[in-house]
Design a protein that fits this description.
The structure is a single chain. The protein is α+β, with helices and mostly antiparallel strands. Helices cover 28% and strands 25% of the residues. It has 19 helices and 27 strands. α6 links the parallel β10 and β11. It is globular, with a radius of gyration of 27 Å. It starts with 10 loop residues before the first helix and ends with a helix.
Length: 761
Amino acid sequence: MIGKSPPRLEAADKASGRARYVDDLRLPGMLHAAIATSPHAHARILGYRLDAARALPGVKAIVTGADLPGARAGGIIKDEFMVARGKVRYVGEPVAAVAAVDADTARRAAELIEVNYEPLQAVLSIDQALAPGAPIVHEEFASYFKTVNGGGAGNVLFESSIVEGDVDSAFARCAVVVEGTWETQAQHHLYLETNGCIADVDAAGRITLHATCQSVHHIQQRVAEELAEPMARVRVVATRVGGAFGGKHASNIHSIAAWLARAARRPVKLVLSRLQDFELQRSRHPARIWMKTGAAADGTLLARDVRITTDGGAYADESPPVLAFALLMSRGPYRIPNARAHGQAVYTNKLRAGSFRGFGNPQATFAGESQIDELAAKLGVDALELRIKNAMRPGDTAFGGQPVPSCIVRQCLERVRDAQRAAPPSPPRPGTRRGVGFAAMSHVSGLMGTAAHLQLRTDGSVALATGCVDIGQGSDTVMTQICAELLRLPLERVSYAPQDSDSSPYNWKTAGSRSTYMTGRAVAVATAELRDKMLHHAGEMLECAVQDLELRPGGQIGVKGVPKSLSFRDIAMRSLFQAGGPLAANHGFVFDGPRFDPKRAAIHQLAFANLGVYTYGAHCVEVDVDEATGAVQVRRAWCAHDVGRAINPVSCEGQIQGGFVQGLGYALTEAMKWNDEGWLVTATLADYKIPGVLDCPPEIHALVLEDPDPTHPVGAKGVGEPSLVGAAPAIANAICSATGARPRTLPMTPERVLAALDQRR
């Protein structure tokens, strides 16, 4: 099954409309919830008037911050209540919620809730947050519980740094040095399905949540924490997920719905409108990146210095690890012996920024890969050849000192170069200039913990369970393929259980391009354990040594060279009714790769215990630039990515193409914007532009390369995020190739491209 692309397990249900998403679910007696949100970016809450809302017929429960216990929740920093308590910190922050007999009544009741505010001066940018005497977004920051300390003074919520070598002396030896500043924007995840859930409470008070999410265990922990309940009294069941991209790893709406259901003793559905999802969930981190890179006269990279500041919004969420990962990726996939990266994440009075496909890497790589082209121009050499000359090799170390046994970034660069050169000529459109741009990138596949469980059923089929939620990337099918391959079973004889916190083995979450490597590895090891147990039974049944046995296609075990065989069913029946007991296998682990090397790198507050399994890729794009209007159109793209081993090649190609298109939006059109009062002014699809069919290049060539990872039983790596990472810098380099103008701010709108052209002139 590995290396083939069978239809996805859920494909028929999705294509036929039978797949059930959270808004498709109905429970008897179900109420509907609505949220009242803050009209202020920064204000104290002085009181509530709820009489009008309570008097509305059909209203069954209302919650405000005054009803909450004292504990705050959060990931790295516990700084947030499920609804605002005492103070609001961004426009759109929930201040109250209502459950009523229907959605219209709930909305009307939410509108009738009156909150008395004392407006405060807002902080709406990185510069404002860091200015002397700036208003403090979190006055009680010092008292917050933190799993990793690293916050600074004022509005700085986290600081981190990595240093390798002697950067200052290395710059003194450089023949050529370039430096500059880049700005990136807030981007919305814009999944097809907005965030939502249904909460129910049984007679004993136990909560069950049906949720569109990236991890049932993560949501279970968050809800238990916010409602001050033991995790044993919270159950989370994943529905089908209509996209996530990092935006559904956690949400306060689950706890709000659960609180209302507990108060009303009836099921409560809470599904956000598109406008609400824009205003109160999360975005990609806006960032400012200053970078300086130096090289010897022959083009050998000698030094890089980086300072990254990210806008974390009103709450920390995943800002510390996003910042830390941006620093780790800022050296790029190159041999740079002397590198220094320092970063700060700051609070502002805007929507929280959180995890998003790429996780800080797109911001760092946009600057880093743009600067490689600038350095090549100053050296008078070809930018692609400069990349190849300095590219990492197998056995090199990543930034932080971890050894990298598998590394084919050079091959990725050569593959896109050769593919672009071999493509039929495509002249530019009339009135435009054609440019070609390249970018290389790295990412990781291994982090945090996961597990898998297998059970041999009576008929010889196998039941597989993991906590890995399929958010649209096809992981259900990939896990089943790995299991079926190692047992030589047809795919239809392996069942895959939906995720349920009561029964699914633990998985941190579907994020970080980790599912195929981490959960796939757990599946492979557990499958091998189950296979060994079956071989042991077969050896006793056939009265031979285990090493003389072999698995045969279709669920059979036989003696090598002898036609006779036993079926998995025969073995299951013996284990269940004669000897040994039911056959099952489990495997769980926390990422166990090489750790950061303190002898090689000085690291301060990285926010990761460990991560690794580096993967690499390269992009080449052709763009046409209209010098009269500044409009940019990507004509063709070639995206080469190392997937380790392609479990499902079509899914790999889909991830590469989809990631590139999302990166195209990040590069050219998508931006969340706030006005001077902190209101989001791009909160609908009329104002927030994502790439449509006509905006996408007619050719996106997904080039799947395989360099099996030695630590994975079948060699797999992740590919979910890297294809987004390289899109913006490749397009920026192509614009510069066409016009000589260097865009430094995302998105590269026609107005900004024209401004860059004017600056060049």
